[in-house]
Amino acid sequence: MRIARAYIGQFVTYLLDAEYAKMNTELKKSFEELEFLSTTADIWTAHNRSYLGMTAHWLDPHSLEQKKAALACRRFKGRHTYDSIATELDNIHSSFSISNKITATVTDNGSNFVKAFKVTQPVQGDDSGEEDDDDDVNFVDLHDALQDMNVEEDVVTLPPHHRCASHTANLISCSDVDKWILSRPDIKAVYRSATSKCTALWSKASHSAVAAEIVDEVLERKLLVPCSTRWNSFHDAVARVCEFPIAELNTISYNFGLKAITDRGYLFLREYCTVMKPLTVALDILQGVDNCFYGTLLPTLETLISKTLDLKTGLQNLGDLPETVVKIRAKVLEIETAVLAAVTLPRFKLRWLRTQERKDNAKASLLAECRKSAQEDQPTGANAPTCSLSTESAIDELFSFEDEEDTSASVESQVADYLKSGAQGMVTLNGFPLIKKISIKYNAANPSSAPVERLFSLGKLVFTPKRNRLTYKRFEMLVLLRYNQWFEG
Hints:
Layout: H1 2-32, E1 37-46, E2 49-59, E3 66-75, H2 82-95, E4 102-107, H3 111-118, H4 142-153, E5 161-163, H5 165-182, H6 185-207, H7 209-219, H8 231-242, H9 246-256, H10 263-286, H11 297-309, H12 321-325, H13 336-343, H14 356-377, H15 391-398, H16 404-420, H17 433-442, H18 450-462, H19 472-483
């Protein structure tokens, strides 16, 4: 019996290793065919061990559907310093040969991640320097030059960094809104009183079967209990409380032996939910599972700002709170790559921009990017002329110039036709090859790092007490195979 179990264990291990190797081979083959992709990264700590996770995202060049894959969930030892993080990220990128294809890596706002990308961005060459007029010849030691080249090859260079939009919005909702409320003594007292009474209701209903039955009898619906790791859950729980008449809530409070919510506190909770509702919807959009492109970011923020500010006139107690909720730096709304990503999504184009000036600027950026792409796609030049060319042919070859006007007109025509078209499906881009290429490039990224957080959620399912003796590598294999749905294919 023991021999049979040992044999089965060895067979399962062999099968797992073989399938994991096959999966990595297939991923590398897929990445070879891609021109652009993006990654998300984060660090997760469980059972006093840290793991660095990474997922990859790209648009299929043919179907234009968003694709994803988990690349790593490996043990991260030592302190989470910026240089250690940068080295590990670079190692993962290099292992899949995608370092030069990544348009952006999305992480949260952690200072170590931010610094890791800040200090490892490629240095732009200075083209403004004056030419050296010195005609003296300087001899360089070849051995020293080769050593310098080897040193440069070891320098870590990371792709552009995008901060997770959902994490930023969470910081605004949890930090800035709380600061605004606590800075106003009259509102602060109502806020603490109302939320403390809600907390007492949630605690009683979730820890007592008898209390839960009373809630079902009086309200005919369950109360939602907030989750500490998800801000939206607090809003949803308060919103559920506000769905019930205050008389029914006070009936429950009386049965539980708790203090009742006052009329002013109830009004505060309703206004709070009204102001925060657009933000919760925006968070749900930015953390979407399917087809959540980077180009969704700016239209979502623009709509969030507009809808939140429109609420100011109907508020009695929280009239200034909308200004705090939409506290998004202006420069975020003007990031050119984010603008290009949004404009090249047929669903949005220029419709989300509210002023003609911004529409003109976005169109100019799109035209410039299309011209640049068209020039890159042109052949570098004809083959070198042969000696058999006649004198007249050689002269014609010498004075052959690119037809710049035709290229420019073609670009402008394609952009104009794209912006005029009414179709909103992604397949529309197949009729506009220049727009399609730009969209594939800039919409490869996600607006949030939610995908890598879902990877860690799978890690929790794999890291059960029965599996706490798994090796780090075996744990990574199981998580990646499950995330990539390898055995379901």
